[in-house]
Design a protein that fits this description.
Distance between the termini: 27 Å
Structural class: alpha/beta
Strand order of the largest sheet: 3-11-10-8-7-6-5-4
Number of helices: 11
Number of strands: 15
Order of helices and strands: EEEHEHEHEHEHEEHEHEHEEHHEHE
Helix content: 25-40%
Oligomer: single chain
Length: 365
């Protein structure tokens, strides 16, 4: 496979973006090693400050941007010439602040989902025009809405689009619960429709990245053969030495079976895919502890409406630190395929047949 990937002003030798995994599952170490091996390395913003030197138990709004910048710089220390960027959820209350913090720390791209990032170009336009902007969508209609809004208000189109398959992707999903798993979604039909829309309406060649359910070389080759310009992969990189999560989090992937993976309704108001065998224990444990909302981190949070809900940040943080019984382990549908702890370099060699040596990066910005 000989496919490089150029998004905006930034190029990497291989057509792979690390999917953002919040609350320090894809932080600086994993992102840096993915970039070092020739992909686009992604630091996820969500909950990044919780398990950081900046957090005192109450000041998440202060800790988040500082911890975010620490992890971006850590990634660059591993891959100084790599393409490092971030994933920022629209649903969080500090969205604009986190985008700016990432740009100030040198992020070369912003991937944004969990809502439509209609204001994103306005946040970066004045001081960071070289940063590539990449929305996540699950439909051609959403891509069209974003493109029209961005062009009308900011004179800009997306630099790339991630098309996420809600039937297979992990974590928070940008689709209504009743529309997931009903057999109606065709990911690669959506990929081709998005590419055709930009080509025919805007006369623009906008890279489209397939996300969700992509695990091995055959999956990558299939995605590229079906019209995708690249793939986004997250779950596959959890069971690596370089993943920022605790070993017990990785072991949960190694131990899970297909029937252990299912959907939950997140307090963020979005469905999410996770290892669900302990979900009731998570809710009951937080209720028994009398937990209060620690940070007001989401624009919409059902935890505020019902004490029977759980705090998503607390649940994900506990799992990331190793308490997978009382914490929530997000994953894609293929997480059960993990059978060993490997390295990022070994995965790249399997997927693309390349050595672990750092290929030459190109960045014109």
């Amino acid at each position: 496979m000989n496919h490089s990937l150029t998004i905006g002003r930034h190029s990497a030798p291989l057509p792979l973006i690390l999917g953002g995994m919040g609350v320090r599952v894809s932080a600086g170490n994993l992102a840096g090693h993915v970039a070092r091996c020739g992909g686009f390395g992604t630091v996820a913003a969500a909950g990044i400050g919780v398990n950081s030197r900046h957090f005192n138990g109450k000041n998440l709004a202060v800790a988040d941007p500082l911890a975010f910048q620490d992890e971006i710089r850590k990634a660059y220390s591993i891959a100084p010439e790599g393409v490092i960027g971030v994933n920022c959820m629209v649903a969080v209350t500090n969205y604009a602040e986190m985008v700016v913090a990432a740009c100030e720390a040198g992020a070369k791209f912003i991937v944004s989902g969990a809502g439509l990032p209609m204001q994103l170009p306005g946040i970066t336009a004045e001081h960071f025009p070289e940063v590539a902007l990449i929305p996540i969508v699950s439909s051609s209609r959403a891509a069209q809405l974003i493109a029209r809004k961005w062009y009308k208000n900011y004179g800009r189109l997306p630099d790339a689009v991630v098309v996420e398959d809600p039937d297979t992707a992990g974590g928070h999903l940008g689709e209504k619960l009743e529309n997931i798993g009903n057999g109606q979604y065709d990911q690669y039909e959506t990929v081709r429709a998005v590419k055709a829309y930009f080509r025919e309406t805007w006369e623009a060649e906008v890279p489209v990245i397939a996300a969700g359910g992509i695990w091995d070389r055959a999956d990558v080759e299939h995605a590229l053969s079906q019209g995708a310009d690249a793939v986004q992969m997250a779950s596959r990189f959890v069971c690596t030495d370089e993943c920022d999560a605790d070993l017990a989090f990785k072991q949960a992937y190694l131990d899970c079976r297909p029937e252990d993976i299912g959907l939950v309704m997140s307090p963020a108001g979005l469905p999410g895919r996770a290892i669900i065998k302990h979900i009731e224990q998570i809710r009951e444990g937080q209720l028994a502890a009398g937990q209060k909302c620690p940070s007001n981190c989401l624009h919409r949070c059902t935890y505020k409406e019902s004490r029977e809900r759980f705090c998503i940040v607390e649940a994900l943080d506990r799992a990331q630190r190793g308490d997978v019984v009382n914490g929530l382990v997000f994953c894609g549908t293929n997480a059960w395929k993990a059978d060993r702890i490997s390295t990022v370099a070994e995965i790249f060699e399997e997927l693309f047949g390349v050595s672990a040596a750092l290929p030459k990066m190109v960045s014109n910005g």
